[in-house]
Each structure stands twice: as C-alpha cells, then as structure tokens.
Design goal:
This protein has 303 residues and is an alpha/beta fold. It is built from 11 helices and 13 strands. The longest helix is centred in the C-terminal third of the chain and has 15 residues. It is globular, with a radius of gyration of 19 Å. Its EC number is 2.7.1.15.
C-alpha cells in the first residue's frame, strides 16, 4: 500500500572522527580519518518511509548554512517532500560529532541547533499536510511541547500518531501519551518510561499495560536481535528478527519504524504483517555501514 506519512523531527549532520584514542586534556592528536553523513532520528525515519514507498513529508528546521543545504538534499534524494522544513536564520543545522577510537569505543557530542527551535508555529503551517496524512511520526530530538502540540492536532484531524520515545525521557507529558496511538520504545527506553525491566514476556506485558493505562493503545517494543514485541490491548506476541550478520546497527530502529509506517494500515489492522516488513528492512540495514546509506528500498525489502 502507499501511505501518506508526515514525520516531525530532527535533522543532523554526523561528523565522524576516527582516531587511535581520544586526547588527554591539553593534548593534540591527529585524526586517522573523518567523514560526514546525514543523520538525525527524524530524517532517518522519513528516508526509510520514503524508500519503502510512502508519500512522506517532513516537518523540521535546518540552519541557513551548507549543512542545511546538505540535509535538505539528502531528503530530496530519497523522495521526501521538504516544503515544511524551515530555514532558521539564527541557529545552525543540528550536528552530531562522533569520536570513534580504534578499539571501537565511541563518544558523541550533540549540537541541537535549529532542531531545538522547532515550534508550534512550524506545525500550524503543516495543518493541510497533516490532515491529508494516514500517519504522523515523531521522536524526542526536538522540543517535547512541539510534538505534544502536533499530536493533539493530528488526533483532532483523525490522523493516527506514532511516537518513538528516543532519546528516552522518564516523565513524558500525560497529554502527549493520551494523543499517542502507537509507541515504539526499545528495551532501555521502555524501562525508563515505566520503571519495569523487560527481562521476559511477562515483564513486557506488564510494561505495556502501564503504557495502556497512560492512554497509549498500541505498544511496540523493539528487542534487537530477539525481534519485536507488540500488544494492542487485545492481542500480543513477539515477531522474531531475521538472523543476519550485523555489521553496523546504526539507525536500525529508525529503519524499522520508517518501514513500518509505510506498511501499517491506518486502522492498524495489519500490525503483525507491518512489523514483519519493518523487521526485514532493519535486517537489511544492519548488514551495511552507515545510517542513511544503509536504509533499503521497498524493492530490496520485497526481494
């Protein structure tokens, strides 16, 4: 099927710095290599949805700089509509500085930049596109109050909402959760949200019930190589992951969610099938290096 998906979220340029080790205070070291790539959970999810065939629009902010032009081009190249991405004249485009040691250890610094300026005004400009959408997707790399406003608008317009609660926030606003139809935490995030460690399926059910009690109808917990748990209040289960040799798990969760949103019926009637499709997409992504470069197309997934 061809869903219309609106993604509200972050756009970051990833600066990847490879080194033998991080320098000590006052020390200068040479880099072994450096690279630049498109990133941000919102951008990753939108690209995954678009590559899976969804008509995808993006609500976000970039700076009036070369990084902003670069990120807009990354979206356009994957078929994401960027009419709703504002150019901020004051704040720079968001960035992530990823310091990777030879041992594989990494340290990451985030500059929110224009992402932190995303506001209700930006959402209001997107009302027509939101009203025409089947699903709205958001994360927590932009202001929570903006996401809350957007989800309230979506619900009033009869549009289903999907929240990826990452990076995790212990206490999300009650109104945001009441306006969330589907929530998609991983094991760590669901424990932060509910206080329940997901050690087994019984614990997952307990955590899901806690989220149901807060107003979320459908809970999806991503379990990495173990698959995906789901509970819609009537049915629950675990959809196994595909066994592959993982090379790089960066953006695996974003790929899953974007692919899921492209396949999921607005009435959620094909939830298990859509999860299986998302698992296939994610299993392909982890077999390649990088975030956005590894996100597969629908043709690849069906093949």
């Amino acid at each position: 099927m061809t869903n219309k998906v609106v993604v509200l979220g972050s756009l970051n340029v990833d600066r990847i710095l490879q080194m033998d080790r991080v320098p000590e205070p006052g020390e200068t070291l040479a880099l072994n290599n450096q690279d630049m790539a498109g990133g941000g959970k919102g951008a990753n999810q939108a690209i995954a949805a678009a590559r899976s065939g969804a008509q995808t629009s993006f609500i976000g902010r970039v700076g009036a700089d070369e990084n902003g032009k670069f990120m807009l081009q990354q979206l356009v190249n994957s078929g994401v509509t960027t009419d709703l991405v504002a150019v901020d004249e004051d704040a720079g485009t968001g960035q992530a500085f990823v310091m990777v040691e030879k041992s594989g250890e990494n340290r990451i610094l985030i500059y929110g930049g224009a992402n932190a300026q995303l506001s209700a005004t930006d959402v209001k400009k997107a009302q027509t596109q939101i009203a025409a959408a089947d699903l709205m997707v958001a994360q927590l790399e932009t202001p929570v109050e903006t996401t809350q406003f957007a989800f309230q608008m979506a619900k009033e317009l009869g549009v289903k909402t999907i929240l990826n609660p990452a990076p995790a926030v212990a206490k999300l606003p009650a109104e945001l959760l009441k306006n969330t139809d589907v929530i998609t935490p991983n094991e760590t995030e669901v424990e932060i949200l509910t206080g329940i460690a997901v050690t087994d399926e019984a614990a997952m059910l307990k955590a899901a019930q806690r989220l149901h009690d807060l107003g979320v109808a459908t809970v999806i917990i991503t379990l990495g190589s173990k698959g995906v748990f789901y509970d819609d209040g009537v049915q629950h289960g675990i959809v196994p992951a595909f066994k592959v040799r993982a090379v790089d798990t960066t953006a695996a969760g974003d790929t899953f969610l974007g692919a899921l949103s492209s396949e999921l019926n607005p009435d959620l009637s094909n939830l298990k099938t859509a999860i299986e499709y998302g698992n296939k997409a994610s299993s392909l992504a982890v077999q390649k290096m990088g975030a956005q470069p590894s996100i597969p197309t629908r043709k690849d997934i069906l093949k």
